[in-house]
């Protein structure tokens, strides 16, 4: 089912929660709405679900205007963070509940439950009540309850946020696998950019109710539309330094150093952005500038270094190989590859990626 949002605005009194949002979610796509707390993700999802009515704009499901249609008329399933399972019912009863009295035969209900349970790996738990299941198993029952309904659209609002980190990672993979199998149009809400990046066909980034960019994970990472997206996507975050472009020398100049500019810059340059993983640490005296290590974080597969740039009261972060060890107080050189810089103008729009 293709979903089209056309110029959707939602106001709560004076507050604009969602501002003039237009976007098409393709049939069968896994699209994630991501952004900081309060950016309008849940409000957008609730309007798609029919739980809120847009103040302005229209919503189409498969070419049908559903802007004012009730949730029941939209053939969708909604999974919330706080998945409300009935504690006095078994997992099987919780899953069949949504289908009772819908005209689906008992036999078909049981068949769907068994098939879904085996897809989710909970076939051994169907006769247990939720309180005797782990958080991850309960979450799977809640998902299963939605899947058996065979909806046209899945709406998921932070469904993994109650789970511990390890379980969250494995559920992410399971959800991806599940989506590959059932191919249902899925809209997923999270504030976690890593979750968004690892699971989605496309990611829609919101800030203050405004859509910033919607594209594949690869594109939002490598070609962020603006400084907000550049800083929000990627961990650790992109480093930003004030800078200007000097046409005569073909260099980018910060208050402390200049580096060769990439070719093909157009427009005014106000900010230089470099991802931590794109900085190269070289011996002191080499590279584009020198810096002092202030913090060294040993992660394992890679390490994180916080550096104070000489002559500039600015700290930047570099990500280095797990085998590289440095200590606070060490002085190093830092090299910037002109091919890997991102440049933003005074409006924070990208002028070079
Ligand atoms: P979070 O990640 O914290 O859930 P979110 O991105 O989902 O945030 P929304 O819940 O959509 O954000 O909220 C967007 C804005 O609208 C917030 O400022 C919020 O306070 C406001 N808001 C949401 N629902 C209502 C409501 N029913 N009445 C008034 N204001 C609301």
- In the CATH hierarchy, what is the architecture of the largest domain at level 2? 3-Layer(aba) Sandwich
| Count of helical stretches | 8
Mean pLDDT figure:
92
**Bound compounds, please?**
adenosine-5'-triphosphate
Helix-strand string: EEEHEEEHHHEHEHEEHHEEEEEEEEEEEE
| CATH homology superfamily of the largest domain | P-loop containing nucleotide triphosphate hydrolases
Residues in helix, %? 10-25%
Largest sheet entry? 6 strands, mixed
Please, how many domains? 2
Major sheet: arrangement of strands: 6-7-8-3-9-10
Q: How would the global form be characterised?
A: globular
Indicate the radius of gyration in whole angstroms.
24 Å
Low-pLDDT residue spans: none
Q: End-to-end span in angstroms?
A: 34 Å
Beta strands, count = 22
Work out the strand percent: 25-35%
Instruction: Please write the CATH class name of the largest domain.
Output: Alpha Beta
Query: Helix/strand/pairing class, anyone?
Result: alpha+beta
| CATH fold assignment of the largest domain | Rossmann fold
């Amino acid at each position: 089912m293709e979903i089209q949002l056309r110029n959707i605005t939602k106001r709560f009194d004076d507050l604009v929660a969602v501002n003039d949002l237009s976007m098409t979610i393709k049939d069968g796509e896994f699209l994630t709405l991501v952004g900081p707390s309060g950016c309008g993700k849940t409000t957008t999802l609730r309007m798609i679900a029919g739980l809120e009515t847009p103040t302005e704009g229209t919503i189409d499901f498969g070419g049908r205007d559903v802007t004012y249609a009730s949730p029941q008329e939209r053939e969708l399933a909604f999974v919330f963070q706080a998945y409300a399972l009935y504690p006095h019912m078994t997992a099987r009863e919780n899953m069949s509940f949504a289908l009772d009295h819908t005209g689906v035969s008992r036999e078909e209900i049981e068949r769907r439950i068994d098939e879904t349970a085996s897809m989710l790996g909970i076939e051994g738990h169907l006769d247990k009540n939720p309180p005797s299941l782990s958080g991850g198993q309960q979450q799977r029952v809640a998902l299963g309850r939605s899947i058996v309904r065979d909806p046209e659209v899945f709406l998921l609002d932070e469904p993994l946020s109650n789970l511990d980190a390890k379980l969250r990672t494995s559920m992410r993979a399971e959800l991806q696998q599940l989506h590959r199998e059932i191919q249902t149009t899925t809209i997923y809400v999270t504030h976690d950019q890593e979750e968004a990046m690892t699971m989605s066909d496309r990611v829609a980034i919101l800030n203050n109710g405004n859509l910033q960019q919607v594209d594949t994970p690869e594109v939002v990472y490598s070609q962020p539309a603006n400084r907000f997206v550049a800083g929000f996507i990627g961990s650790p975050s992109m480093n930003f330094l004030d800078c200007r472009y000097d046409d005569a020398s073909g260099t980018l100049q910060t208050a402390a150093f200049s580096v060769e500019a990439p070719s093909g810059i157009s427009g005014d340059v106000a900010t230089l952005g470099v991802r931590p993983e794109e900085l190269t640490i070289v011996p002191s005296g080499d590279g584009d500038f020198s810096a002092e290590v202030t913090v060294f974080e040993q992660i394992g597969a890679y390490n994180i270094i916080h550096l104070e740039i000489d002559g500039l009261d600015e700290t930047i972060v570099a990500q280095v190989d797990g085998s590289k060890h440095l200590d606070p107080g060490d002085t190093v050189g830092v090299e910037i590859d002109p091919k890997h810089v991102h440049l933003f103008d005074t409006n924070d729009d990208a002028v070079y990626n």
